[in-house]
Write a structure and sequence with these properties.
The chain is of the alpha/beta class. The chain has 13 helices and eight strands. It folds into two domains: 163 residues, Rossmann fold (3-Layer(aba) Sandwich); 91 residues, Orthogonal Bundle (N-(1-d-carboxylethyl)-l-norvaline Dehydrogenase, domain 2), CATH 1.10.1040.10. Helix content is 48%, strand content 13%. An eight-stranded mixed sheet has the order 3-2-1-4-5-6-7-8, sandwiched between helices.
Length: 293
C-alpha cells in the first residue's frame, strides 16, 4: 500500500537522536508511536502528540513503518526480539551505528522474521533533523524506500538510496565518518595552541572554516587520482607532508601540549616513503592503507 504524507510511524529508542526523529514525525502530522526501555523518556513526546506504547510488541504493531534508533545492531535485535512475530510484513528501518557486517547480519535477522529491511544513517546532529539540507542515506530494500520515501524525507531533505545491498549505509557511514575525529582533533590542537597564548578558540573558527573549504574543493581531484591510480601529477606530495614530521614534536614542546596523536599518521607517512611514494600525490597514502602492517 503506497504511503502518503501521514503514514503512521513507530520510533523505538528515545535517546537524543531518536527523540529528534519522533519530534520531526509528530511535527509533520504523522501518527507517531514511541517506545523506550526507560518509559520516562517518552513523556515530553507524548505532551507534543506522540502515543507511548507500553510494550515493544505494541509499538511494532502500531503501524507499517518501524524506525529504530538504538546504539548498535545487537541492541536493536535485543530490543525487538519480543516483537519478532509482529514484524511480519512490516518495514523495518534501522538508524544506528555499526559495521557493514553488522548491517548484513541485521538484514538477515529481519528478513528471517518476515520484515522488509532498510538500513540508514543520519549524517548530522539531532538538532538538524528535519532541515532541508540534512543528509540521510539508506541501503537495502528499494521497495521500502520507494514506498516510504516521502515519509523518510521528513527527517531530512537530502535523502538518498544508495542501493539494494543492506550494508551500503553502514559502509558509507564508516567511510565518511572516519573524517570526523581527526578533523576535530586538529581543531582541538589549534584551540590548545591559541588559548595557551591567552587567545580564544573562537578566533580560530573563521580561518578553520576557510581551510576546510579549501580541503573540500580538493576532494574531487583527490578522488579522481585514487580512482585512476595515477599519483604522478601531485598538487602536494607525500614528501612535503613527511618533511613536516620534525616540526610537530618541537611545536608540542614550545606550547606544552600533547601531540602524540600524530604518531600513527607519521608512521603511515614513513611507510609511504619507504614504498616509493615520496614524489607522488598525498592521495597515494590510500595505497599504503590498503597494505596494513
Amino acid at each position: 500500500m503506497p504511503a502518503n504524507d501521514r503514514t503512521p510511524v513507530t520510533v523505538i529508542g528515545l535517546g537524543a537522536m531518536g527523540t529528534a526523529l519522533a519530534e520531526a514525525f509528530v511535527g509533520a502530522g504523522h501518527p507517531t508511536t514511541v517506545w523506550n526501555r526507560s518509559a520516562e523518556k517518552a513523556v515530553p513526546l507524548v505532551a507534543k502528540g506522540a502515543r507511548h506504547a507500553g510494550t515493544v510488541e505494541e509499538a511494532v504493531a502500531a503501524g507499517p513503518l518501524v524506525i529504530t534508533c538504538l546504539t548498535t545492531y545487537d541492541a536493536t535485535r535485543e530490543a525487538l526480539e519480543p516483537a519478532s512475530a509482529t514484524l511480519v510484513g512490516r518495514a523495518l528501518v534501522t538508524l544506528n551505528t555499526g559495521t557493514p557486517e553488522g548491517a548484513r547480519r541485521m538484514a538477515g535477522w529481519a528478513e528471517a522474521r518476515g520484515a522488509r529491511f532498510l538500513d540508514g544513517a543520519v549524517k548530522n546532529v539531532p538538532t538538524a533533523v528535519g532541515a532541508p539540507g540534512t543528509l540521510l542515506y539508506y541501503g537495502g530494500d528499494k521497495g521500502v524506500f520507494d514506498t516510504y520515501e516521502r515519509t523518510l524525507r521528513v527527517l531530512g531533505g537530502d535523502t538518498v538510496h544508495l542501493g539494494d545491498e543492506p550494508d551500503l549505509a553502514a559502509l558509507y557511514e564508516q567511510a565518511v565518518g572516519g573524517l570526523l575525529l581527526p578533523a576535530l582533533l586538529g581543531f582541538f590542537q589549534g584551540a590548545a595552541l591559541v588559548t595557551a597564548r591567552g587567545l580564544t578558540a573562537g578566533t580560530l573558527v573563521r580561518y578553520t572554516v576557510k581551510w576546510l573549504e579549501m580541503i573540500a574543493s580538493e576532494l574531487p581531484a583527490i578522488a579522481e587520482e585514487i580512482d585512476s591510480g595515477d599519483y604522478t601529477r601531485p598538487r602536494a606530495t607525500v614528501g612535503i607532508f613527511h618533511q613536516g614530521i620534525a616540526n610537530v614534536p618541537q611545536l608540542g614542546r614550545e606550547a606544552g601540549i600533547d601531540v602524540s596523536w600524530h604518531l600513527p599518521m607519521h608512521a603511515l607517512l614513513e611507510r609511504a616513503v619507504a614504498d616509493g611514494h615520496r614524489d607522488h600525490s598525498i592521495s597515494a597514502l590510500v595505497e599504503t592503507l590498503r597494505k596494513p602492517e
